[in-house]
Amino acid sequence: MSVCTGNVLLVDDNDAFSSAVVEMARQARCKITATDKLESARRLLTEKTYDLLLIDLALPDGNGLDLVQDIDLASQGRIAIVTGNPSIETAVRAVKSPAFEYLIKPVSTEALTRLMDDAQRRAHAREAAMVREFSGMLGQSACMQALFEKIRRVAALDVCVLVHGESGTGKELVARALHELSARAGRFVAVNCGAIAPELLSSQLFGHERGSFTGAMQSHAGYFEQAQGGTLFLDEITEMPPALQVYLLRVIETRCLTRVGGSREIPVDVRLIAASNRDPQRAVASGNLRSDLYFRLMEFPLAVPSLRERREDIPLLAKHFLDRLNERYGTNKAFSADSLRTLSERNWPGNVRELRHAVQRHYIMAGENGCIDIKPEPETPLRPVAGDGSVRFTVGMTFDDVEREMLLKTLAHFNNNKRQAARALGITAKTIYNRLLRYRSQDLIGDDLLGDPQEESEPAD
């Protein structure tokens, strides 16, 4: 992550004073630009943003106050007028102008130090504002800044990218950022491979010809063709049937596809981005991801950090979500002094998505005074972590606790696949979904575990 440096512009023709200011800026680790002319100062102000402007009144080509009138105040930092010949007239003009300081030479070391420190604070605020929004993502932490830099570097290159991260970390936002920065003219098409029935996925991805199967009343362009000239994002790539992975690999390598029921090869110019919330190497070992496809997608891997790895971003994200709610509903609600600290200390197994939903719930439940007061949660394991596959119970646990522990651990084992978990437990997927609804109402789980209500129905045999 880059180190913030205050940018200082000095407009003064006094060599002794300029030398002193340059030395003070060096000690304060500020970057200083010096000039003795109004003309060059005007040019410099159009090229760069400065956190501090020190402007002398008497300059060879005019009065420093004239420069102040020309400055775009919205884009520049603090202004300080300095003069060795103070007068009532210039003091009155300075007070009426947007200048924040009116200093008389010799300026004290304390005053210069204060101004340089203020420039550094403004630089930090400026950099924070710059990183608030990166293609829809927020993050000031070192790991997020590293992710943003990797996205910038690979976005314009025509290579496959495999995005890996837990559910709720924002993998689709990463894919969209790659597309937006790629300058590709085509569409961004997102497909969740786990949300489409396996028998329909081939037709949806690669298209089909009329009459190729029952119900194919007309030809259909698949997602690859819809993303022509753009980007195709395949989320949950490990849910794709292995046989279809073989054909996907062929399309990637040949840049041609054949629709289901067709014989004509169709050239495709598509940048492919895949994602998974499973560990890719474990998915290969378990047979959910073919090794040859894995190595093809791994041309450039991107790991999206969990919220637990970037706790310093939690207050920024929480405030952002609250600001959006206030703007949408015309309110002015705010977090209490301890709420952001409380949020920062939680585990957030559902990551950014869970945090957003939590802020929304607390926003709805806030009192009439508009204060959102969030208390620490009881120290109870809310979500089992997949490990050795065992479930541990202790004496004194209620039957509800035992049931919840067994259910959540089984879901974790099957990567939140409710149908597989239901078969293992000998119950229906609808039963699992109803239990999860109850746990969520009790704030025991986040929305990420709840998933799609359509999963409560078992497919017909």
Overall mean pLDDT stands at 83
Sequence stretches where pLDDT stays below 50 over 5 or more residues: 379-388, 454-461
| Helix fraction by DSSP (H/I, runs of at least 4) | 40-55%
- Specify the overall morphology: globular
Q: How is the largest sheet built, in terms of strand order?
A: 2-1-3-6-7
Please tally the helical runs, counting DSSP H or I stretches of 4 or more residues: 19
In terms of DSSP E residues, the strand content is: 5-15%
What structural class is derived from the secondary structure elements? alpha/beta
Number of strands: 16
* Beginning-to-end CA distance, first to last residue: 54 Å
Instruction: Summarize the main sheet.
Output: 5 strands, parallel
Radius of gyration: 30 Å
Topology summary:
Elements: E1 7-11, H1 15-27, E2 31-35, H2 38-47, E3 52-56, E4 58-59, E5 62-63, H3 64-70, E6 78-83, H4 88-96, E7 101-104, H5 109-131, H6 142-155, E8 161-164, H7 171-180, E9 188-192, H8 198-206, H9 223-226, E10 231-235, H10 242-254, E11 256-258, E12 265-267, E13 271-276, H11 280-285, H12 291-297, E14 300-303, H13 314-329, E15 334-335, H14 339-345, H15 351-365, E16 371-372, H16 399-413, H17 418-425, H18 429-441, H19 447-450
Parallel strand pairs: 1-2, 1-3, 3-6, 6-7, 8-13, 8-14, 9-10, 10-13, 15-16
Antiparallel strand pairs: 4-5, 11-12
Helix pairs in contact: 6-7, 13-15, 16-17, 17-18
